[in-house]
Amino acid sequence: MMKLKKLIYLGIILLISCSDIIDTTQTEETLADGEGEMDSLEKATPRSCNQRWIPSSLLTDKQKTITYERPSRNCSNGAQPGSIEFGNYIREHFGHLMNLDVDGEGIQIYNCRSVRGGSSPSVHSEGRAVDIFIPMRNGTANNAKGDIIANWLIDNAKEIGVQYLIWDRSSWKASGSPAQKCYTGTHPHNDHIHVELTWKAARKQTPFFTQGIQDPVWVGGAVQPNNPQPNNPQPNNPQPSDPQPSDPQPSDPQPSDPQPSDPQPSDPQPNVNSWIGDPCDSDLDCAFNADGVIGKCFMEHQPTSGMGFCSIPCNGFCPDAVNEAITFCVPTQAMGLNLGGVCMSKSGATNDYCQRYPGFVATDVMRYIGNSNASSSSAEVCLPSNGTTGAGTGNGEGNGGVCSISDIPFGDHNQSCQGVSAETWRCACSQRLGTVVSQVCRNGVWINFETNPSNCDRCDGPYTSGCNN
After folding, report:
1. More exposed terminus of the chain, fewer Cβ within 10 Å: N or C?
2. 334: how many CB neighbours lie within 10 A of its CB?
3. pLDDT tens for residues 256-279?
4. What is the pTM (predicted TM-score) of this model?
5. Neighbour-count burial for 212-235, b at 16+ CB within 10 Å, e otherwise
6. Can you tell me the distance from the alpha carbon of 276 to that of 381, in angstroms, rounded to the nearest whole number?
7. DSSP string covering 407-468
């Protein structure tokens, strides 16, 4: 009896102690959060709110109120244009602080699902939530890197259209009060920053997209805060009150140049709707704007067909665009040249596995890294047939030993599953991840679910636990 009383007493002491250090209060952000595909990297119970990121921005109060827009029940079937452009910008300007080895090269956007641990729809399901992955440090959040990006996002929340973010056990929202608080969801968000955009931002209608903002200014490894603009009106230069003499105008009519009576041929118009990888025979065919760089028609490999491909130079990374094939930075040595790297389109369902491009074949190539911090990887891209270094793996059954299970087909996130019944599950070999993934056919495309599922023999048709990691 005495031992039992001691055990009960010790239990009460432990409960009191734990209640002092653990905040288990669930916030509304738990329902708003729509963590990315890789949020299974680490699951943790809530920890002390004294050990979390605290925003240093002056905008943690209500200076910039942005109404929170909750997601609908309908998935958007892909990432929004503004989310893609925003992700490209973050990777370009903050890539040295990011974990670029995860799927999507440090940026993940679209995932048609509910929030982890709940039934509410995720903002990722509408394609307007962006996960920015940060390398961890000794199993914890790397605040020396992630804090810089998170604080910069708050500084520019209104211009970009950021309504909400989570980083290292803290959430920040642009509406309501307080703006920041302890986040107690199932994932501590210590390996990625979860950013939600408003619909205006997702549609590229905020000043970040229409007017541009000042790029981050780096001083001593940190980003300088934006300089506030003076709101006092500046005096206009005084105007003379006396009329100024003007140049004399001729009173006699001047003869005009004779106009031809026959219609003149119009100059060819630049194609601004083209994109990386499209066939071309001149620069006018490639007048797209990729993050401020105008496309060019790459003809240096002297194709026998007379057709080149639209591209831009690259140094490890290439931008992506909505409804276009995923891009990859390719060394020109793959075409017998020595001109650095160029962006090309990956082989996939969007370009019918390179069959849409006459004279191009699917070919495995290594990434051109240059002086970037990109990780070494390979991909199957659409290369000119008269300038390739080897045959591609194709799109048949099996994957040639690329994945640990060699008899499953290649398949990546958002590739078409036309002809397959909805909610059909399978295992596939992801070329982007270089490993086995479980996928479900939903809304006409394959959606990645987990990497390295436990039992692919059972992940074939209806859903089973074998599709889980």
Report:
1. N
2. 23
3. 444 444 445 455 567 778 899 888
4. 0.46
5. eeeebeeeeeebeeeeeeeeeeee
6. 12
7. TSPB--TT-B-TTSPTT-EEEEEETTTTEEEEEEEETTEEEEEEES-S-TTT-SBS--GGG-
